[in-house]
Amino acid sequence: MWEGADVTDAAAEQPPRTEALPTQAPPAVDVTRLIHEAASKSGLLWVRVPGGASHPVWHAWHDDGDERGPGPAAYVVSGPGEQHLPWLPDEVELILRSKDTGGRLLTLQATTRRLEPGTDAWDAAVEVLRPERLNATGDVAARWRDDNTIHVITPHGRPLEAPGRYDDGSGAAPVRPAAPATARWRPWHWRGRAGARRNTTP
């Protein structure tokens, strides 16, 4: 530094130092509790078939520690007189939504397994499903055994989506058009009553 230079001027020319602020980690998410809250307090979840659509399904949630069978898992019954479900592969995705807002809460990988009637696992599933099947008439267990299919859907691994880590896409899907319907039967007074169309003047 040459003689007579102002030290304060030289210091002013230096860029100000920036202190690195400690980064605050996002709060940890208790996934187990979220799964319990979303699945046990809502009777509806969505099953997404790989490469296909998402299907809303009624289910009975079965938590871990229940003496009726292993959990956590969802029991789902489908077929005639019950909800419609496509063929389920061994691996699907479960989408759990908030009961309050309806927004996507968790997306989980899950395995599916069809339960065979007459086995202990099938009997255990019926014990979980039957109390949750509202407005059922007759012997639902016999009907499920003869006409329906019961699946157990078990989530596993880390969530694909969870609070703080969601896909940016809207998740909206185009509405699939229903099969066309043509009215074939018509009431006897179609296009007016017969007497109104005839000239009844003598």
Explain this structure:
This protein has 202 residues and is of the alpha+beta class. It has a domain at 45-163: Electron Transport, Fmn-binding Protein, Chain A (Pnp Oxidase, Chain A). Helices cover 19% and strands 25% of the residues. The protein has a seven-stranded antiparallel β-sheet. The longest helix is centred in the N-terminal third of the chain and has 10 residues, at 31-40. It is globular and about 45 Å long. The termini are far apart. Residues 1-5 have low confidence and may be disordered.
Mean pLDDT: 74
Number of helices: 5
CATH superfamily of the domain at 45-163: Electron Transport, Fmn-binding Protein, Chain A
The spatial strand order of the largest sheet comes to 2-1-5-6-7-4-3
CATH class of the domain at 45-163: Mainly Beta
Strand content: 25-35%
Tertiary shape: globular
Radius of gyration: 31 Å
Major beta-sheet overview: 7 strands, antiparallel
The succession of helices and strands, N to C, reads HHEEEEEEHHEH
Poorly predicted runs are 1-5
Number of strands: 7
Q: Pairing-aware structural class of the strands and helices?
A: alpha+beta
Distance between the first and last residues' Cα: 129 Å
CATH architecture of the domain at 45-163: Roll
